[in-house]
Write a structure and sequence with these properties.
Elements (H helix, E strand, L loop, with lengths): L2 H33 L5 H31 L39 H8 L3 E8 L14 H4 L9 E2 L4 E4 L2 E15 L3 E4 L1 H4 L4 E5 L7 E9 L4 E5 L24 E6 L7 E18 L2 E11 L11 E3 L5 E8 L7 E5 H12 L4
Antiparallel strand pairs: 1-4, 1-6, 2-4, 3-4, 4-5, 5-8, 6-7, 7-8, 9-10, 9-12, 10-11, 11-14, 12-13, 13-14
Helix pairs in contact: 1-2
């Protein structure tokens, strides 16, 4: 017991003793008047003063007991003060009802800041091919029901034929998609179906007036992945994105897609991770193509988004946007980063 509590206890003991003493003395004065019949005026006045004094002393003692009980939490078992849901002491101005908490929606990062940092590393890829070519899987009617319209395997946008001089040969613009730098010395990651059948690949990079001509280092039809390389001007480093871990993502986590849907360059869309480990089957000119372990998201993905990054809230790539169900709303698919990192070096060296 601290000094303050001890002083209060001593005071209470003194008041109680005084009360008992006074009460005993005045009871002696009251008894004769109760048993003797007539009382004198002096005895009556003394009795009234005695009752008033007893009442006042009792009030003081009881008040002292009440103060000490409240001070020392006698009736609460001397337990600690109750805390509200937000950590403040109960009874404070910020007190909340017991057992209730408030929920807030926060992404944890500034989405605009993520876009500003990531978008310079996202590139537009355009492919050129010879005018006379056989129908590709992107024109196969059996392919359209799943993706719809002109969307390719995951959304390569089909372009109107444009003739471009290439030495003595004439090439036409066949399609466009998205990619991103994953190394600052010019290595680009995209989907295989974005550059499939191309005779020439052009890459448009933010901050440069003219597109780069890219070399396809390696590709995999089964995984739908490809690595391109462009040479920087004067050894200048390109902005790049870091590959994160798709295994660490949880259903409901925020995700961000950046790409070039329908020619609208550097478009940002946002959603959540809807599911993991999704398998889908696509029929193309080579038969049925089976995808495994895909990420599903409701972030908008359209033709032209293929090959673009799917980012987490830290701006890390956790997938490559590759497919969308055009008959539904908010059902898109991405190849997970864990699949990509396992084969990235082999794609770079064309040894896969």
């Amino acid at each position: 017991m601290n000094d303050d509590n001890k002083r209060q206890a001593d005071k209470s003991t003194y008041l109680r003793a005084t009360y008992e003493k006074e009460l005993g003395m005045h009871m002696d004065l009251i008894k004769p008047s109760m048993g003797g019949g007539k009382r004198s005026k002096r005895a009556g006045a003394s009795s009234a003063r005695t009752m008033l004094a007893s009442f006042l002393i009792g009030a003081v003692v009881i008040g002292g007991f009440s103060y000490m009980a409240d001070k020392n939490n006698v009736f609460s078992g001397n337990s600690a003060a109750v805390q509200s849901a937000n950590g403040g002491a109960a009874g404070s101005p910020t007190r909340q009802d017991a057992g209730l908490t408030t929920a807030s929606l926060a992404t944890g990062e500034d989405i605009a800041g993520i876009y500003a940092a990531a978008s310079p590393a996202v590139v537009k890829i355009e492919t050129y091919a010879e005018p006379a070519r056989s129908a590709s899987m992107f024109e196969d009617p059996a392919f359209r029901p799943f993706f719809g319209g002109d969307a390719g395997r995951g959304g390569r946008q089909q372009e109107q034929p444009q003739i471009e001089e290439q030495g003595s040969a004439e090439l036409e613009l066949a399609g466009s998609g998205t990619g991103f730098f994953f190394e600052s010395d010019g290595y680009i990651l995209t989907n295989e179906h974005v550059i499939s059948g191309a005779k020439e690949v052009k890459v448009t990079v933010q901050g440069y007036d003219e597109p780069f001509t890219a070399t396809v280092l390696g590709s995999s039809y089964e995984l739908d992945l490809a690595v391109l390389k462009v040479e920087s001007q004067g050894g200048k480093a390109f902005p790049s994105l870091k590959l994160g871990s798709s295994d660490d993502m949880q259903i409901g986590d925020w995700v961000i897609a950046i790409g070039n849907p329908y020619g609208f360059d550097q478009t940002l869309t946002m959603g959540v991770l809807s599911a993991k480990e999704r398998p889908i089957t696509i029929a193309d000119e080579q038969g049925e193509h089976q995808y495994e372990h895909l990420l599903q998201t409701d972030a908008s993905i359209n033709p032209g988004n293929s090959g673009g990054p799917l980012l987490n809230e830290s701006g890390e790539v956790i997938g490559i946007n590759t497919a969308v169900n055009a008959e539904a709303q908010g059902i898109g698919f991405a190849i997970p980063a864990t699949t990509i990192t396992k084969v990235l070096e082999q794609l770079k060296t064309n040894t896969l």
